[in-house]
Design brief:
It is a single chain. By secondary structure, this protein is α/β, with parallel strands linked by helices. The protein folds into two domains: 255 residues, Dihydropteroate synthase-like (TIM Barrel); 95 residues, Sulfite Reductase Hemoprotein, domain 1. It is 38% helix and 19% strand. The longest helix has 18 residues. It is globular, with a radius of gyration of 20 Å.
């Protein structure tokens, strides 16, 4: 049930991705990179689960130092998420097999340099170190120029951003790259990836529904997107992003393999007609950006205390970090993004203040009751 894919094949240290290669399944370490024992444990858990590639986030020189020590202890294929600091690419390159950059974050540093120059720098680093490159577009961090070009059209914005960055990498004479276009809404993920694949059928695609949330809802959201895309021959590697305890992260790999097998064998599951009705809780899967592990417990508590609101068409977003949290809560009715000691609460794009972890649930409930009353 998965048609022959038309993309070219790239290599990530001996792992073929694209074309006729098996669909690769990957995940990301949920721990802070500087906590070396915990991150190594994550890597080994994911390796044991059968991960083809493991991503680690790096945002500082101390993260780079930790990454070097982690690399010395494992031969797992490692990808690095450069987050907001693209200049770190040169420092992390000796320790990884793949670089991932987000076009929506390139404007944060060295604003006098053009996007073209920054992409050329990344390509040159990848080429010198024989690395693959991922252009990782995220609907929660759309580059400002694309928001201006596509007002109110996130699908058009992220698809065109990916298309344009492919052209920049092509112009630099580099072909060992792939693209990911992600959002927490599987319907947007499907629409954007279909649009991109029509424009660039040659480019391998990494599939994922970001911040899918906790099982079983997170698995259902991911299944919706994967069934619709893989059955069209779209998707060469994938990640299932679930909010899970750290020791259970290997489940992402197991679920990914299960979904591929089901689709290959025609085992499609119907989506309940009311699945997108009622309360929608978005929660990120955690990564090294998360500065307080209480975030995972908080997400579960949010679901528990809002259970009686399940029939109300509202979205609550629970995000674990300062990098994606502020932007990816903008579209939610109520958004929480977590720091080391405080949780920032938002109503839409309006900031309502920062609250301690033992205070936030009561304040969230108050705001939820107000929203329900207003509707």
């Amino acid at each position: 049930m998965i048609p022959l894919r038309k993309t070219r094949t790239i290599q990530v240290r001996g792992l073929p991705i694209g074309g006729t290669a098996p669909i690769a399944v990957q995940s990301m370490a949920a721990t802070r990179t500087q906590d070396i024992p915990a991150t190594l444990r994550q890597v080994r858990i994911l390796e044991a689960a059968g991960a083809d590639l493991i991503r680690i986030a790096v945002d500082s020189d101390k993260d780079v130092e930790a990454l070097a020590l982690i690399r010395a202890e494992t031969r797992a294929r490692l990808s690095v998420d450069l987050q907001e600091n693209y200049r770190l690419a040169e420092k992390v390159a000796p320790h990884v097999d793949k670089l991932r950059y987000n076009p929506g974050h390139l404007h944060h540093h060295e604003k006098a340099r053009s996007t073209r120059e920054k992409v050329r720098f990344l390509v040159d680093v990848a080429r010198r170190h024989s690395l693959a490159l991922r252009i990782g577009v995220n609907a929660g961090s759309i580059a400002p120029e694309y928001k201006e070009r596509f007002p109110g059209d996130d699908v058009g914005a992220i698809a065109q951003c990916a298309i344009d960055h492919c052209a920049l990498v092509d112009d630099a004479g580099f072909t060992e790259y792939l693209v990911s276009i992600k959002d927490s809404d599987p319907r947007l993920v499907v629409d954007a990836n279909v649009r991109f694949a029509e424009a660039r059928p040659d480019v391998p695609i990494h599939l994922g529904v970001t911040e899918a949330g906790m099982p079983p809802e997170g698995i259902i959201k991911t299944r919706i997107a994967f069934e619709q895309l893989l059955s069209r021959g779209i998707g060469d590697t994938l990640r299932v992003s679930l909010t899970l305890p750290f020791d259970d992260k290997g489940r992402e790999i197991a679920v990914g393999r299960e979904l591929i097998s089901d689709i290959e064998n025609g085992r499609f599951r119907s989506v309940p007609p009311n699945f997108f009705q009622g309360l929608n809780i978005i929660a990120c899967p955690s990564c090294s950006r998360v500065e307080n592990e209480k975030f995972i417990e908080l997400a579960a508590e949010v679901r528990r205390i809002t259970a009686d609101a399940k029939d109300h068409d509202l979205t609550i977003a629970v995000m674990g970090c300062r990098v994606n949290g502020p932007g990816e809560t903008d579209d939610a009715d109520l958004g929480l993004w977590c720091g080391p000691n405080y949780v920032n609460l938002k109503r839409g794009e309006l900031d309502l203040g920062a609250y301690k972890y033992d205070e936030i649930l009561a304040r969230l409930r108050t705001e939820l009751d107000r929203l329900i009353a207003s509707k």
